[in-house]
Amino acid sequence: TPAVIYTTEAGGNYKLTFISENVFSVLGYEQQEFLDLPYFWGTNVHPEDSKKVSEGLAEFSRSGHHMLEYRFKHKNGSYRWMLNELRLLRDKEGIPAEIIGYWIDITERKRYEHEMEAIISVANSLRAAQKKSDMLPIILDQVDDLMKAEGASLAVRDLVSGRTVIELAHGRWATLTGQSLPAGEGISGHVISTGKTYNSFIPSDIPGDLYAIAAIPLISQGIPIGVLSVGRKTAIADYEIRMLTAIGDIAANAMQRSDLHEQTLRRLNRLAALHTIDMAITSSLDLRVTLNVLLDQVSSQLGAHAASVLLLNPYSHTLEYAAGRGFRSRAIQQTRLKVGEGHAGRAAFDHRIISIPDVHESSDPCVRAQQLMGEVFVSHHAAPLISKGQIKGVLEIFYRFPFSPDPEWLEFFESLAAQAAIAIDNAELFNNLQHSNVQLTLAYDATIQGLSRALDSRDKETEGHSQRVANLAVKIAHIMGMTDDELVHVRRGALLHDIGKIGIPDAILLKPQEFLEEEWELMKRHPLIAHEMLSDISFLRNALDIPFSHHEKWDGTGYPHGLQRENIPLAARIFAVVDVWDALCSARPYRPAWTEEKAREYIREQSGKHFDPKVAQVFLALDLSEEG
């Protein structure tokens, strides 16, 4: 820009004596018109710069040279930034003759510097913010300050519904925060849909009206994602639009960065939630525990106000409440829905997610009005729980405000439902397996007891012999520290202790006289026969100790292998005492039953010979008054 040259008197009053013609193009004045101005530095300098000018003139008076920048009033009333240099000229005698100076219009440079400062300020302020909720007030605060705005707002486009949502508003527009407009409606909706800047200046007679409004699109990766709007009473200049656009570009990039950061964190948290549910499924077969973990994750990851799981009753074909979170009353627990009935029933029937963003705008009535009375739910979402093609139940989520889920939310909701279905299926398989195992165990035990009664009958034992010795052996084994699993095998072994006698001919087994030597040798083979019979039956293999070794003696004089002391299995040592006791206390064809005292004396006398002393001690300490 050409400099405006001027001269003034040197007497200190600064009266203009010359001004170049281009003062008109710079400040709008004709030459003579400007020369006739009273003290031109007076009311023509911007009030905020008057002190700076006064200080500059004082410095000039001392040094005879000075340069400063300030705003000078244009004839039209606006202010222009000027670079002003003054020099004092002296005559040959060194006396001040006149002052020469020039102005250069630096308005555009100052505007550019202001824009750069604004951009740097916004960028620096946003650099430390990670969350969008932290960024929005920073952006609007900067805009308020830089634009002298009386109202400002930042709106975004909802990716699912397309609606324009005003995330935050300041000043006179503060009440707009949270409002949602249909796609394309209003200034913000128009700017987002077109991607073009809006700048309007409409004078208004209404006091307090903001009749200058500018709105610029926030564009990220070529796509409008929002709009930044400002309003004030004075017109918004083109350079201010440029500055606002630059701020908008920074804001859009920062918001996109924040969205990506929050999206990454959200996905990591959701992966962690799925892992937590996986751990619950693998570490516990208690369905209640797993469902509680599931609902905890649903509430925290999806921000649900309430959530429930309905399980399908395969006999009544109804969906029944199994677990819940966040409900204000227990009425939900009375839920009984037919498949196909209501939102949850339809989800089960159609094998798809049913999503109701706002029940007030839905034509589908709520069939559980009684159970949900007082809950004030507005949004309802239901996902079917499907495993191996079979419906297991429904996972429900409730919100107390309208909520339209995005595809990522729905995908995670579906993943949670799949996890829940796996948990239910695992629990059912485990319960069915347990039931089958119980039935099989009962069948095993019933078969063993039937066989033991048959053995007692064949061997002419007293009625209930095998059952009595089994009960007593288990009692002593428990006292001596055997585990529950070991006690099962003790009982089975006791019931089958003489199963090897099946291989002994009746002529020998039932012989009333003493055995001949060869008969006795055959008789002593019944433990070996028992081993041959039971060793190939897997569930009885651990019960072999008693049938195989209960005729061994502590001192090594027993049979079939002459084992002694701790080499004899503990179960067999326990049973040896019990079997002899029951035999002595029972009547036989060849002798009457012994008294309890006489039998006790025999056990005591055989301790350390026939019987393990520790087992004998435990046995003799028992109160046998209630034993059969």
Amino-to-carboxy terminus distance = 124 Å
Give the overall form.
Answer: elongated
What is the subunit organization of this protein? Answer: single chain
Question: How many strands, which pairing sense, and closed or not: the largest β-sheet?
Answer: 6 strands, antiparallel
User: With helices defined by DSSP (H or I, 4 residues minimum), what is the helix count?
Assistant: 19
| Relative helix content | 40-55%
Kindly estimate the percentage of residues that lie in beta strands according to DSSP: 15-25%
The gist of it:
The protein has 628 residues and is α+β, with helices and mostly antiparallel strands. 44% of the residues lie in helices and 19% in strands.
Task: Give the secondary structure arrangement, pairings included.
Layout: E1 4-9, E2 16-19, H1 23-27, H2 31-35, H3 50-63, E3 65-73, E4 79-90, E5 96-105, H4 107-127, H5 132-147, E6 151-157, E7 164-171, E8 180-181, H6 186-194, E9 198-201, E10 212-220, E11 223-232, H7 238-283, H8 287-302, E12 306-313, E13 318-325, E14 336-338, H9 342-350, E15 354-356, E16 379-387, E17 390-399, H10 407-458, H11 465-479, H12 484-495, H13 506-509, H14 517-523, H15 526-534, H16 545-549, H17 570-584, H18 596-606, H19 613-620
Antiparallel strand pairs: 1-2, 1-5, 3-4, 4-5, 6-7, 6-11, 7-8, 9-10, 10-11, 12-13, 12-17, 13-14, 15-16, 16-17
Helix pairs in contact: 4-5, 4-7, 5-7, 7-8, 7-10, 8-10, 11-12, 11-17
